Amino acid sequence: MLDAEFFRRWLALTAAAVDREAARLTELDSAIGDADHGSNLQRGFAAVAAALEKEPPATPGAVLALAGRRLISTVGGASGPLYGTLLRRTGKELGDRAEVSREELAAALGAGVVAVAQLGGAQAGDKTMLDALLPAVDALGASFAEAAAAAESGAVATVPLQARKGRASYLGERSIGHQDPGATSAALLIGALAAAAGEGAAR
Ligand code: ADP
Ligand code: MG
C-alpha cells in the first residue's frame, strides 16, 4: 500500500529529476516553444518539495492537493495549471484515505489525466504531455515499471507528430521532428513514481 510518505518521496524524486534534466527540457522547449519549460518546472517542483518538507501532509490526497496548488501558484507557463490540475484532481480522487493501492492510484491518475485533457482541450496524438500520461495510466494497472516505460515511449513517440495544442502548434509542420517538452517532463514524473516504488532507476 502507498502512504503519504510514498507520495512525498515521489514528488521529491520528481523535483530531483526535473532539476537534473532542466537544461534538456528547456532545450526541447527552445526548439518548438519559448525555452522556459525547464526553468518553469524547476521553480515549480522546488516549491512543491519545500512546501512538503515544511508541513508534511498526513494523507496521499493532501500531499497531491498541496503539490498541485504550489505548481499552479509558482509556474507561469501552460504546464503549471496543467500539472497542477493533474495532481489536484488525482488527490481529490484519493480522498482522505491514509493508504491506497497501485490500482487505486491508477484509477485516480486516470481521472487526473482526463481533467488535464478537459482543461487544455488536447487529446492523444496532439503532441502534448498527454501523449506520455495516457499510456502511463493504462500501464500503471500492470506495474510501476511498465508505466514508466510507457511514458518514456510515449514521449519519444511525439517526435514525428505535429503539435496541435499549446505554443508548439503555432509552428505548424515545423513542430515535426522534435520531442515535446511536456511529454518529456511527464515521463520524468512517471519515472520518479516508479523510482519511489523501488521499480526502475531514478531519472
Ligand atoms: P508554455 O507553453 O506556456 O511556455 P511550458 O513551456 O512550461 O509552458 O510547457 C509546454 C508544454 O505544455 C508543452 O510541451 C505541452 O506538453 C504542454 N501543453 C501545452 N499546452 C497544452 C494543452 N493544451 N494540453 C496539454 N498539454 C499542453
Ligand atoms: Mg514554454
**CATH superfamily annotation:** DhaL domain
Q: Give the CATH level 1 class.
A: Mainly Alpha
Low-confidence stretches: none
What would you say the CATH architecture is? Alpha Horseshoe
Shape: globular
Query: For the report, how would you describe the main beta sheet?
Result: 2 strands, antiparallel
Give me the side-by-side strand order of the main sheet.
1-2
Number of helical regions? 8
Q: What is the averaged pLDDT score? A: 97
Helix content: 55-70%
Molecular structure report:
The structure is a single chain. This protein has a single domain, classed as Serine Threonine Protein Phosphatase 5, Tetratricopeptide repeat. It is globular. The protein has helices at residues 4-32, 37-54, 60-74, 79-94, 102-120, 130-140, 144-156, 181-196; strands at 2-3, 99-100. It has a two-stranded antiparallel ribbon with strand order 1-2. It is 67% helix and 2% strand. With 203 residues, the chain is an all-alpha fold. The protein has eight helices and two strands, in the order βααααβαααα. It binds adenosine-5'-diphosphate (ADP) and magnesium ion.
